[in-house]
Amino acid sequence: MAYKKLIFFSFLWMTCLGCFQTDPPVRVKRLPKLFTRVDLPEATYIHTEEDGAPLTYEANELVKLTAKNHPALDSCCNSTKPLPCCTDYWFDLHYPPFDATLNFTYKSLNFDGVSDHIKSDFIVSSFVNTNNRKAQVEEQQQGSTPQGYYYEHYSYAEAGEPEMFFIADTLGQHCLLGSLIFNSAGQGSDSLAPYISFIQQDIEHFISSVTFY
Fold first, then answer.
1. Residue 205 falls inside a structural domain
2. Is residue 185 included in any domain, yes or no?
3. 34 assigned to some structural domain
4. In a domain, 202, yes or no
5. Residue 143, by phi and psi: left (phi above 0), alpha (psi -120 to 50) or beta?
């Protein structure tokens, strides 16, 4: 009799467990992040000779060239022996449709000891890392241009200057530094991604076309 009761209660227990059994939760699949479609113009490049610096390049026909004064010229040139920054020349290539600007600084490396800074990673440490200290490098390119100049090009994520690069001639006579900024505040990296990608192609074309003289 006790044996039959044990079987009965075991059957009842298994039945109760079956009543409370539930299916495992369904895992929701995350959809890929979608971006608003942006129609960008086809790039057309124009040969340009810079008036304030000994260089030529090809820039997108969308841009507007502007020159600006170096804020440190007075302090570095008012001396018996001018400092290297006295020969710096600044100019911008502005993209009105995107409200973006490529900022450029031309440096003459004819001063004693300045060319040594290039060889000791002066450009990388003082220009790239200082300006974008907390940013994450997404891509880094380096090599020689068709004219034989050395260049480095950095693409950053979540940075105020998402693109930074420099070009230096092999003889240590010229150096050009460039960076990209977007002038409108409050724009997220996702919304800027199509424009950054578009300007990246312009930067690559610019680097390959620069000629110092």
1. yes
2. yes
3. no
4. yes
5. left
d(CA 95, CA 97): 6
- Phi/psi for 103 (5° steps) reads -90, 135
The CATH number linked to 206 is: 3.40.1000
Side chain identity, residue 24? P
- pLDDT tens digits for range 25-42: 444 444 454 455 678 889
Distance between CA atoms of 151 and 48, rounded to whole angstroms?
20
Specify the number of domains making up the chain: 1
For residue 88, the enclosing domain spans 84-212
- For residue 12 the two structure tokens come to 């009842």
Tokens of 63: 């841009």
Q: What is the pLDDT of residues 147-198, one digit of tens each?
A: 999 998 988 887 788 898 989 886 768 889 899 999 876 566 668 889 999 9
Contacts by 41-44, CB closer than 8 A, 24 or more apart: 41/97, 43/198, 43/201, 43/202, 43/205
The b/e string for 137-156 (b: 16+ C-beta within 10 A; e otherwise) is: eeeeeeeebeeebbbbbbbb
pTM recorded for the entire structure: 0.71
Contacts of 183 (CB under 8 A, 6+ apart): 99, 100, 101
